[in-house]
Amino acid sequence: REPGSGDNGPAPGDEIEALAKRHLLQPWESLEHLGQSARTVLDRAENIYLYDSEGNKLIDAPAGMWCVQVGYGCREIAEAMANQAMQLAYNSPWYTTSGPAAELAARIADKTPGDLNHIFFTTGGSTAVDSALRFVQFYNNYLGRPEKKLILSRQSAYHGSTYLSASCSGKERDKVFLDFAGNLVHHLSSPLVYRRPDGMTEAQFCDFLIAEMESTILEKGADKIAAFIAEPILASGGVVVPPEGYHKRTLELCRKHEILYIADEVVTAFGRLGHWFASEEVFGITPDIITFAKGITSGYVPLGGMAVSQKVMAEVSGSDAKGAVYSNGYTYSGHPVSCAAAMANMDVIEKEGILEHVRDITPYFQDKLAELDALALVGDVRGAGLVGCVDCVADRKAKNPLKLDSEVGGRIDAHCQEKGLIVRPVYNMCVMSPPLVIRERQIDTMVGILRAGIEDTMVDLEREGLW
Ligand code: PMP
Hints:
Blueprint: H1 13-23, E1 42-46, E2 49-52, E3 57-60, H2 63-66, H3 75-87, H4 99-111, E4 118-122, H5 125-142, E5 150-154, H6 163-168, E6 185-188, H7 202-220, E7 225-230, H8 246-256, E8 260-264, H9 278-281, E9 289-292, E10 304-308, H10 310-315, H11 336-351, H12 354-370, E11 378-384, E12 387-392, H13 408-419, E13 421-422, E14 424-426, E15 429-432, H14 440-463
Parallel strand pairs: 3-13, 5-6, 5-7, 7-8, 8-9
Antiparallel strand pairs: 1-2, 2-3, 4-10, 9-10, 11-12, 12-15, 14-15
The structure holds 4'-deoxy-4'-aminopyridoxal-5'-phosphate.
């Protein structure tokens, strides 16, 4: 099909754009430009490539929103969904269950660390985090300590867009116009090594973060703190890889003070770091609860969930738990079509050796990205597995150029899109988290275009006197 041709096909790109401008309230929309801003209209996708409505081919560097693990056009997943839709399109999770939900739960339990064997399905990452937080509330209320409510989170974390998950997020910009359950959350410092206080080594920075967490616990009272929620790598906060030892030491503090540890693996699970889950295999910890979403279906259909440890579950269930109800669920909890997609996705990941591939190709990807550190606009390049971030600064010493704040990522993305690459701009950063099936040659092209996009942006900034 020629893009935009034929009366029976989808509307041509400019018609779609016009309809979107008139009627679509886009997520995270800038209302100053409501009805004006044009987002790239996509038409189809294959492997790691997106095709826009004009037929332009773009490498999808962020894999959608860090989710399209096996790449686009995976027939096995599409067929599994179609077959399941014909066999049993839906079942009520209120009073029935289905083969795909039960089998997927068993399969996930087999992959989670330790005894995290109770799986609760949700509709995505935000509802997974919300369910985990509400489970923690249920847990403490049930155990007769309703004052143990506070959640420890971190600055620049992102945990979702529902009221409670958003309250745990630490991005200041998201908090300007919306209310949050501020009384329920306390934000600790972001473990961003690059912007650690002057004069500290990485090890000293880790000590500083642990000391801050411990003094917060002592100050607020361990009997008031219910949980610590942490992305193993803070993803949309700018690919923050905490200092060596941080994960183990935060878990130790939680154990010492009877605080539940929720690892938000919405981005890091299902292969992004070369393992089904990163908590144990990459960072050596077994949390109490893990939340997941995104990569579980490679983004083909929405699904999320949480895994709760048997130990925690045992404390609030069984013959003593008369009348106790974890009163939380969704019409689409354990949706059979989503679960069938997830099973097919896991089959593909196994059959094609995608976890091994990620582990093999990670050094190549990280080394290539690191070459961009030589550019004068780039202050830091960081990452792990198949996720990386280029952090731009005006002055490599000062690290934080106010004049350029919030703009540079978008400028680079605009240049890259002209050359065949979509990057994910976050303030002054560009995030790369490609589909996990990416090959070396494709990484070369991706990083080559990113380099050109940064160079073009440097020329623009100089011309406009901004740099
Ligand atoms: N947690 C993390 C770590 C995330 O990155 C995201 C989404 N970017 C979420 C939760 C929320 O997931 P969703 O958008 O599927 O609701």
